Amino acid sequence: MAADPFFEFLCRMGDNTLVLGHRVSEWCGTAPVLEEDIALANTALDLIGQTQMWLGLAGEVEGKGRSADDLAMLRDAWDFRNVLLTEQPNGDFGQTMMRQFLFDAWHVAMLDALTRSTDPRVAEIAAKAVKEASYHVERSGDTVIGLGDGTDESHRRMQAALDLLWPYVGELFVPDSVDDAMAEAGIAPDLTDLRAAYDDHLAKVMATATLTIPDSAFAHKGGKSGFRHSEHLGHMLTEMQWLQRAYPGATW
Amino acid sequence: MSSPNSAYPDIPETPPTKPRRHEWPLWEIFIRGQHGMSHRHVGSLHAPDADMAIKNARDVYTRRNEGVSIWAVEARHIAATSPGDKGPFYEPSESKVYRHPTFFDIPDDVGAM
User: Fold this and answer.
1) What's this model's pTM, rounded to 2 decimal places?
2) Which Gene3D superfamilies is this protein grouped with (chain A) (predicted)?
């Protein structure tokens, strides 16, 4: 069972940004237009930068001499603590932007709460990351609106993306023993407290985007606990970790 | 259909309808740097509306901390001289050196200007 809940929590924050950052980076060079290509690459780099801070602190807290790179590149799928939403495949551009918005809207609320963490190191990372996340959510929200309220084709694709990804939203807000321990210590907020504002935010954006939020509270789980990741994570790690696996310790 | 006024009656006046390209309009981007006094033209990009033009400009042109303010202007709103106007527009001023304020003695107290 979970060793140190603080370490687990930091891995959750860092693995969310690492896995999503890698997913977003998969668009590099293939996005539908040049402007979006650069914007997606910027987002991916922001997320990877945040990963360095979260996993760097995780390694420090763990005290076994593991660096952020060690944690990112040398753990296997079952050791990852990202929510299932972040590891879902890119699909089409609309699906990627829907995934991004569903995550960003949670991320910005979470980071904002973390700026008031009782742990100054966590508060400091959050203060830096929340500025990036605020831009991410504005951009992904605008794109969801633009495509949702766009052509018949783009609307259809965005609704399909929302229907597909909605069951992965719940995991962000359902606390387990790690989340409870963090809330108790004042390190992180009670996740259930973030839900109402998230739902409001989503309702506004989806209404403007003319999209219908599925009427279902079903939530996949198993990502942040590491109990059961989706099949997609292993395939992603195979590519992401290949170099360090094939040439251990390689640098440039 | 050729119009009777056309110089080339065999060629239809209205160009054949091209397949419509669903391209975003072009925007010209101006950025004021950290210590810059004014916005400078840095390039152009495509965006569906003004709001996204600003966002795209942020992502394309300020990712290395270049700016503190962005202007986006849709390219079609910019009135410009054409290269054909070069003669009458610019050449007459070439021979008018007296328009440069270089014929005054500047007092030393003024310093560098």
Assistant:
1) 0.86
2) 1.20.1260.10
